[in-house]
Model the fold of this input.
Amino acid sequence: MGGYDSQQLRALAAIADAGSLDAAASALALTPSAVSQRLRALERACGQVLVVRSRPIALTAAGEAVLRLATQVALLEEETHRELAGEQAGAAARTPLAVAVNADSLATWFLPAVAPLADAIELRVQREDEGLTSELLRRGVVMAAVTTQAEPVAGCESTALGVMRYRPMAAPGFARRWFAGADADAFRHAPVVTFDAADQLQQRFLRRQTGADPRPPFHLVPASADYLRAIELGFGWGLVPEPQLAGRAADYDGLVALTPDHLDVALHWQRWSLRTASLRALTVAVLTAARSELRQP
Done:
């Protein structure tokens, strides 16, 4: 395997981000031929095919490994440039940091945690289910992730954040209609609000309540505020994260808990094992906020 050229690595990162050679060429202000030449040169240096020329383009396993390197090199180059230029936090230049965060963390504690860094970084958030965010980290698409996976992804470090507790909530009228007898069997039939196709929390809770795998009617509402609004309007019951209920009155301001039972999801912060000021600052902000906002073991 030969050495790596930063321009070739940049071309691979642009291809992965844009999804095609033409779009990558436009982003880099190059011709498609020049981007293709850089990609072929990088593949020769690696001795492996990095990109499947499909529509959209897909990276091979080797391509994903080299993409992680490309993104790390870009981050180091950016921070080195800022240091040599004498730029301080709050200056015009910002370091781009791509992170994967689950919707419930994004809607509650994550953004306030990183807001003080807004003048120093360009945050690129990818919203994904907490059980899937580590895959984006493994592929090199993001530099850090809030995830349920405790075992570090290769080349990463993992730190426990705490537990996000979910409570089964419903509108009072819905609760009276479907759960008047406080019968756990009602969960087999009562309509439920689900966040998206990847959301398995409600089904996990149903299995625990019923000892089976019921399939009641469900409504799909893939936005945190609208998800909660659908529950308030009586579309169905749903699991709501405690931080989203924290600002409400003691009676949850119009919502009722269907049972004292709850579902706990342990979250972890995984990030590249890369010693940069921006990634370190992001990690400190995230860990500090999580230890305040999430339940700790």
